[in-house]
Design brief:
Helix content: 40-55%
Number of helices: 7
Largest sheet: 5 strands, mixed
Strand order of the largest sheet: 2-4-5-7-6
Oligomer: single chain
Number of strands: 7
Order of helices and strands: HHHEHEEHEEHHEE
Length: 246
């Protein structure tokens, strides 16, 4: 009788393990789908605004017209390539893209992101031209990092306030620091402790995935991310990344 009961419990345990594995796989698929949807949706609005602004203000007789089209096109193509890769990787392999590390110029990446968002808000980029801002990283993943932070900064600024974002880049020894500051409503102490927790969000329409993903990407680049915030004055995110070896 004891042996029979033991065997029954083994069968029940095996069935429970199979159900748990199935549940975990389904949960992982849901989480992955949410993340893919979040990453695809995030840059679409600023991309649309950029094109609409160009359509309204484009003047073929302007001597700078070609340069404007080139800048907008470069920014949009880079964003579209990032979205295409995410979609293809998810479709083909059912997983987020693996990092593809190469030497990239961080200032160039930031300038392309700013080009996308500058029609929504005033953005100022400050850096020393004499410093080396070359890092070893995945350009598309870093685009996602800065897309998320800038989008959050824009959404944190009240409609009755003239928004401004300041991006200050400097390097010390073997590290590059990127400080992204906004003049938004700030983050409460209670929210600060959960800010990088997956699925925690302060927005009614947010998924809570963005900043958790940002933190993961930064750490995968051997970097660190932190923030300081003052209620009703604004928030500064600081990202530290190692300089690429020469």
């Amino acid at each position: 009788s004891l042996v029979l009961k033991y065997n029954e419990k083994l069968d029940e345990l095996e069935q429970a393990a199979q159900l748990l594995a199935l549940s975990e796989r389904e949960s992982a698929w849901r989480d992955m789908a949410k993340q893919v949807a979040h990453e695809i949706k995030n840059p679409l609005t600023p991309m649309k605004l950029t094109v609409q602004h160009l359509m309204r203000s484009f003047d073929p007789s302007d001597p700078n017209a070609e340069d404007r089209i080139q800048k907008v096109s470069t920014s949009l193509i880079e964003q579209i390539d990032a979205l295409t890769r995410i979609s293809n990787e998810f479709s083909n392999f059912a997983k987020m893209p693996k990092p593809n590390f190469e030497k990239i110029q961080l200032i160039s990446v930031l300038q392309n992101v700013i080009e996308l968002f500058k029609h929504e808000i005033q953005i100022e980029l400050i850096h020393d031209d004499q410093h080396n801002f070359q890092i070893l990283g995945d350009k598309e993943q870093l685009l996602r990092v800065f897309n998320n932070i800038l989008k959050n900064a824009i959404q944190a600024i009240p409609t009755d306030r003239k928004g401004k974002i300041l991006i200050h880049v400097n390097s010390e020894l073997e590290t590059i620091s990127i400080n992204i500051s906004d003049n938004g409503i700030g983050i409460s102490e209670e929210q600060q402790n959960k800010l990088f927790t997956p699925y925690f969000t302060t927005k009614s329409t947010g998924s809570g995935i963005g900043l958790a993903m940002v933190k993961q990407i930064v750490e995968n680049h051997n970097g660190q991310i932190s923030f300081q915030s003052t209620i009703n004055l604004g928030t500064t995110f600081t990202i530290e990344l190692p300089i690429a070896d020469h």
